[in-house]
# Entry
Amino acid sequence: MNSVITEKKDRAAIVTINRPKALNALNRDTLEELLACFTALEEDREIAAIIITGAGDKAFVAGADISAMQDMDTLAGREFGQLGQRVMNSVETFSRPVIGAINGFALGGGCELALACDFRIASDSARFGQPEVNLGVIPGFGGSQRLPRLVGTGHAMELLVTGEIIDAEQACRIGLVNRVVSAAQLMDECLQVVEKISRKGPLAVRLCKEAVRGGMQMDIDRACRYESELFGICFASADQKEGMRAFLEKRPANF
Ligand code: DAK
# Structure
């Protein structure tokens, strides 16, 4: 059975982690399939955005697979961590937006996968946490770095050192998710966001992501110069000509 399923709906690709019996825990095979899936989707020009979710109604991803990690030695742990980080990077640097549809437990590596997405929408049954301290380890897929960048050091530190699990509303309050909807509404809500994105200038959407992702690594002066460079690039595109002409002709743009 494939542990990652990809389906297309209009301009959205829905990537489902599919190991419901293990609450979609990430083992080596699943991580490798995810990496292959993101590499393949990068070539698909029709895709306006990706939605990542978990199979079943209980979990997004309950973490890295603890049974697979239990007996790892230093080298195997390092390789597993590096594979996981490559996956998180491929999500984060995917050229179009990636939305986390968080439909249940997003713990440990699952919370880290959610953090690598560009933004997250949660069902009211979603639960978040970095419980690695319960297992005697720290996050290995970037969580100790992406969580404080998203929610601030105070909230991140509390979650990391207590291993506490928070519900969707709390996650929303600290900015870990953008909003909370019912489980029944979750996929429709995400598909509507993709539909909205698919009507915008495709190059501009890509460059927004590049500006935010790239700029957040820089000091504000360099980041603003980077923004000007990307802004300039827009003017070399047919999208800019069409977008501005359409506005002046009082009609919707046809990108
Ligand atoms: N790994 C493997 N199996 C898991 C799992 C996981 N993370 N989470 C759940 N399962 C499995 C359970 O073992 C159980 O399997 P069977 O017994 O049925 O065979 C099945 O899924 C259903 O789970 P439960 O029976 O436990 O279900 P409950 O509703 O009672 O509890 C729960 C749900 C999510 C609260 C509970 O399953 C739970 O606490 N799960 C573990 C959550 C967790 O601790 N997640 C963090 C994992 S650690 C690193 C690389 C990576 C990482 C760290 C370092 N380096 C290389 C440096 C990342 C670490 C993590 O993500």
